[in-house]
Amino acid sequence: MKPHSITEIAQWAQAEIRLDPSLHDPNQTMATGVSIDTRTMIAGEIFMPIIGEKMDGHRFLATAFEKGAAAAFIDRDHLDLVDDFKDKIFLLVDDTLEAFQTLAANYRKSLDVLVVGVTGSNGKTTTKDILASVLTRKFRTFKTIGNLNNEIGVPRTLLDLDESTEVAIIEMGMSDFGEIDTLVKMARPHIAIITNVGQSHLNQLGSQENIAKAKMEIVNVMGPDDLLIYNRDSSFLAQEVDRRKASAEGLLPRTLSFGQDSQADSSLSLTRSNEGGSSFTLGGEAFSVNLLGSYQMYNAAAAILCAKELGLDEVTIQAGLHVTDQTKMRSELIHAQGFDILVDCYNSSPQSLREALHTTEVLAGYRKKIAILGDMLELGPMEKKIHFDIGQEIDPEVFSDVLFFGPLSKYMMEGASLRFRDNHLFWFSKKSDLVDRAKTLIEPASLVLVKASRALRLEEIVESIKQRTAQ
C-alpha cells in the first residue's frame, strides 16, 4: 500500500475518526500501511488490534505508538483506552476484524488489478507459486506470502498490493462453510482455480460432497465473463460443477477443466517424473515443471491454463515453470551429510500423504528409504480408520523402516504392521526419542521422508536429523 490519508483509510474501513483537531488534520496525516503485529510494524503504519482466541491486540496499543504508529483502530468495547492516549489518532469501529476485512475489500476495489483466487484441499500453495513464477514474466505480479490464506491473511495480502500491481494471486483456505465466501467478497477474483477436493476438514464438513460445495463458494461473486479453472480428475469437484451447471442455483462463470478424465476440456498426461521434476502434455502440448512429484503436473496445468487465458505464449510459460521461489516445507529435498531428506510437513491429508509416498518411491539412486510420518488432522469420525487404511498402503518393498509420531499415527502403524516385518515400525510420543532412533537407521545414500500435519511441527526434527552422529 502506498501512503494514504487517515481520512481515506477511515472511509474504506467505515470507521469514525477520533482525534484532537488542534493536533492533527486527518486529511494531511498519512499512513503507509496497516499492521496487526507490533513486532513487525513500521513507523507510519496504522495499528489494527485484532481480538483472537488467545490474545487481544488492544493490549499492545502503547507498543504500537512507541514504534511510531500513525494511528490505531479501536473497537467500541475498548473505547475507554483512548483516554490513555489523548494526543493520538484513533479509528473507532464496532469490530476490528470486520473493519480489517472491510478496509481490505474497499481498498482492493480502488485498484485496477486482476485477481486470481486459488483454493483446493491440496496443492493450492504450490499452484500459487508456479503461477506467480509464470505470470511475473509478463505482469507485475503479487502473490500470497507463505500460507496467509484465511480471514486475517487474505486482507493482509490485499493491503500489501499497490497501484502498480497488475495481477494478484490470492490463496484461499477454509475449514467450514461460509469461509471462502468471506474471502471472495474481499478479493473479488476474475479467475478462480480449484485444485481438487480431498478429505481435509471432514471433521467440520462431514463429507467430500460438502467440501466441494464449500470450495465452490469461490465463484460466488464471479460474473459470466469470469473463469473457473478446475481439476476434472477430482471426482467430487467435477460432480459439484456438473450439478451446478444442471441446476437453477445461479449462473457459473465460464469453466475450463483439465485432467486425465475423458470429459476434461484440456487432457493431461504424464510422460516422466524423477528428481528433476515432471514432464507432461496438456492439450497435446509438452511442458515440464522442475518440482518434485508427479502430482505437480496438476498444479502446473492449472497455472498454464490461467497463463494462457491471460495471453502468455508457450515459450514464456515453459520458462516460468522453472520455479525458484517455492514456499518452504512442500516437497523440499534437503541434502544432508551423505543422505537426503524430503520435507513435506506443512500439512498432511490422505491424498497428499499418498502423493508424498509415491514421490519417495520413484526417486532413484538411494540405497535405503525411511519414512517419518505424523498424524493427519481434521478427518472427522473416520480418522482412525483412515489412518489405518493408509498404513496398509505403505510398501515394505520401498521403505525399510517407518517411524510414527502422534496419537493418530498409532492406527497408521497398526495398518502398516499387516505388511511389515517386526522391528521395522516404531512409534514415538517424544520427538527427541524419534530423532535418536532415526539416527541409528539412517545410512549413507538414504532418503528420509518427513510428512505430517502442520500442528505436529515435524519440521523441528529436520535439523537434528541432518546432524546425524550415529554410526
Task: Note down, in words, how this protein is organized.
By secondary structure, the protein is α/β, with parallel strands linked by helices. 32% of the residues lie in helices and 21% in strands. The chain has 16 helices and 22 strands. It has helices at residues 6-13, 61-66, 96-109, 124-135, 153-159, 179-187, 202-205, 208-215, 235-246, 296-309, 314-320, 350-362, 383-393, 409-416, 431-441, 462-466, and strands at 4-5, 16-18, 30-31, 34-35, 46-47, 71-75, 90-93, 114-119, 141-143, 167-171, 191-194, 227-231, 254-259, 266-274, 277-282, 285-289, 332-335, 340-343, 368-374, 401-405, 425-428, 446-451. The radius of gyration is 24 Å and the shape is globular. The model has no long low-confidence stretch (mean pLDDT 93).
Could you give a quick summary of the protein structure above?
This protein is 32% helix and 21% strand. By secondary structure, the chain is α/β, with parallel strands linked by helices.
Describe the secondary-structure layout.
Elements: E1 4-5, H1 6-13, E2 16-18, E3 30-31, E4 34-35, E5 46-47, H2 61-66, E6 71-75, E7 90-93, H3 96-109, E8 114-119, H4 124-135, E9 141-143, H5 153-159, E10 167-171, H6 179-187, E11 191-194, H7 202-205, H8 208-215, E12 227-231, H9 235-246, E13 254-259, E14 266-274, E15 277-282, E16 285-289, H10 296-309, H11 314-320, E17 332-335, E18 340-343, H12 350-362, E19 368-374, H13 383-393, E20 401-405, H14 409-416, E21 425-428, H15 431-441, E22 446-451, H16 462-466
Helix pairs in contact: 1-3, 3-5, 4-10, 4-11, 13-14
